[in-house]
Amino acid sequence: MKLLTLGIFVLILSLTLVVTYWAARRTNTTSEFYAAGGNLSAKENGFALAGDWMSAAAFLGFTGLTALYGMDGSLYAVSALAAFLLILMVVAEPIRNTGRFTLGDVIAYRMQRPQARLAAVVGTAIVNVAYMIPQLAGAGALMKLLLGVPYSTAVIFVGIGMVVYVRFGGMIATTWVQIIKAVLLLATATVLVTWLLAKVGFNPLKLFSTAEDKYGLQMLAPGNYLKHPLDAFSLSLSLIVGTAGLPHIMTRFFTVPDAKTARKSVIWLMFLAGSFFLATTLIGFAAAIFVGQDAIRAVDKGGNLALPLLAQALGGGAGSIGGEIFLAVVCAVAFATILAVVAGLTLATSGTVAHDLYVNVIRHGKVSEADQVRVAKLSTLAIGVIATALGLLAEGVNVAVLVILAISIAASANFPVIVLSLFWRRFNTAGVIGGITVGLVSAAGLAFIGPAFMGKTAIFPIVNPTVLSLPLGFLGAIAGTFLGGRDLANEERFEEVLYRAQTGVEVH
Known about the structure:
mainly alpha; Sodium/glucose cotransporter; globular; sodium; symport; Cation acetate symporter; Na/solute_symporter; cell membrane
């Protein structure tokens, strides 16, 4: 079985490396490295966006939480659907029209202060690294199960892989690796759902009733995982708002030629990722039924391996040819998913370090294209090392929980700054710093003293802190704006920014 798994994995990896080589020959300018030259179609970018969002954390973590906690776990998946509407209606067009490569571009288009870019660098880097950690943790858990490879070895391997993809192929390679991964992931989910539905007479309601019979009404009722009454609301709020504040998602809107294409790509995202997330709910309940919660916890206490174990059970069980083949396929696809997602995160992070920090803050824009690409590639290596080191510490933690921490920081630190930059005349550089600082510190601090990390000894009662940290992020931004004093030049640019955000036309 180990040889089979390794063979399938090597096949998928070889395909992505060929794509990377092809992309590397077509990546020469900063625009090609950061944004694929802005030439992607709506369908291509939509598949890549879906690939960005359909992460290992979603595939493994959301499924595992649903298997262990029922509908409380499925909220992680369902709430994401509403996030896409917010992106479509509020975020996609203004970001595409006002930015070039990064979140820092969007903010600096109006603020034109190095301090604003520096704050954006901090917000982007912390969110992206926090999002990388669960992907790496998922890789470690998978390879430990399949090949008996130590967790640390698997994490280091993925770290090397993501650096190779980004350093040599840039956004073009990352995009096509994500497209390939999205197709594989959707195909795998389709086969899996069809297979398990066939076992229950193609009646999905039977999955829910069987789970209720086996584990009790709590599988279908709130409060099984999210104990506090505000938890479900806070989780939904975090996913809806936080997704719109994820830097690697926003970066995707710079890869298309215009705002119309950006909107169309979000529609593709809604269809593809929406279908996938609905599938994870069915798969999670099926895992609880056909594998069993005790068996899932025995292999991984966080539930991250519920999906591979279900694939094995549907194929005939451990030791059977069908079971081992399907297990190998699912795990190889999941591993490819991890590589693709961390590549996108690494690119977005290296972009903000090189473009925002080095080019615009340190060198004040006086950098050649070749030098900028060189710095971006060096920062890719540094970010890969940092993320890998942190991923080594995440063994045994449910990856979905870690993703929610990252999204909560994005919701509380990045989203208020984006909204106020685009729609509030008085907003200034001090507001940017205040919003990102307060939102980041409150989200991370409250999460670390909450049940997700402290368990029953938690000081803060809510798993997801967004219900409190998001208002604090807005409050920090507003307070910083007033404490920083009036910036009349910035206020004069507001009309220009607003016009550009809505039309894409630059005022001369």
